[in-house]
Amino acid sequence: MKTVEMKHLSAYYGTFKAVEDISLTIRPGMVTAFIGPSGCGKSTVLRCLNRMHELVPGARSEGAVTLDGEDIRGEGVSPAEVRRVVGMVFQRPNPFPTLSIFDNVAAGLRLEGRHPKDEIVDRIEAALKRSQLWNEVHDRLDAPGASLSGGQQQRLCIARTIAVEPAVVLMDEPCSALDPIATLRIEELMRDLADTYTVAIVTHNMEQAARVADYTGFFSIEEAGAPGKLIEFAESSHIFVNPTDERTERYISGRFG
């Protein structure tokens, strides 16, 4: 687990400033949620945490993002290594369609090229157990990953992420494409993963943030075309019961805008 800290982070797509002057700390061993209306930049902020933002042509960021005090954009820091330490689970399950369940989870380990076969087998089993999928797939690991249900595919993607043993796990709307039962499984998994990883999620579901997150940040925009800003960041119990900022209270109560 590592502490993730943003200091005066701003992110751009070309000349458009998507988010402005974000400063907050994501604590290890806890779940931190980003909430806010569509277009407020919460997913952009999440992607800045493992340098995926800069994969978009013309995208860039300013300010600092550190892991235990180390600048992830420092001289000589490899973006690939950052993404190994800071894993990402996306909005829609994205198993490699031509690979088996086993090979999906093994993909990152094989890419690293430094793990013996026995270790890969052990880590795949451990990752599938940790993602609460082992009992459902242990007797068909050679089946295509794409043959699983949507919720199982998302847990497979989580297993693939944690198999390489990152320090931080990011989840961008991980339940938006899932049914309520699959969503509850992923939420349980978020809480379990927080015992080992620093976990940050983006969610449009305020009830989900209230259920699973220890800390919540509310992002918003003042007007169309303006950059997104962090309005309030605090313990979730404070955000959802007694927010400090009136804009947060309006959003939480459904009176936003």
Structure commentary:
The protein is an alpha/beta fold and 257 residues long. It has a domain of 178 residues: Rossmann fold, CATH 3.40.50.300. It has 10 helices and 10 strands. It has a 6-stranded mixed β-sheet, with helices on both faces. Strands 2-1-4-5 form a 4-stranded antiparallel β-sheet, covered by helices on one side. Helix 7 links the parallel strand 7 and strand 8. Helix 3 crosses helix 4, helix 3 runs parallel beside helix 6 and helix 6 packs parallel to helix 7. The longest helix has 14 residues. 41% of the residues are buried. The mean pLDDT is 90.
Q: Mind telling me the CATH superfamily name of the domain at 4-97 and 169-252?
A: P-loop containing nucleotide triphosphate hydrolases
Task: Give the tally of β-strands.
Answer: 10
| Percent range for β-strand residues | 15-25%
Main sheet summary: 6 strands, mixed
Report the order of strands and helices.
EEEHEEHEHHHHEHEHEEHH
Quaternary assembly: single chain
Shape assignment = globular
CATH architecture of the domain at 4-97 and 169-252: 3-Layer(aba) Sandwich
What order do the strands of the largest sheet run in, or round the barrel if closed?
Answer: 6-7-8-3-9-10
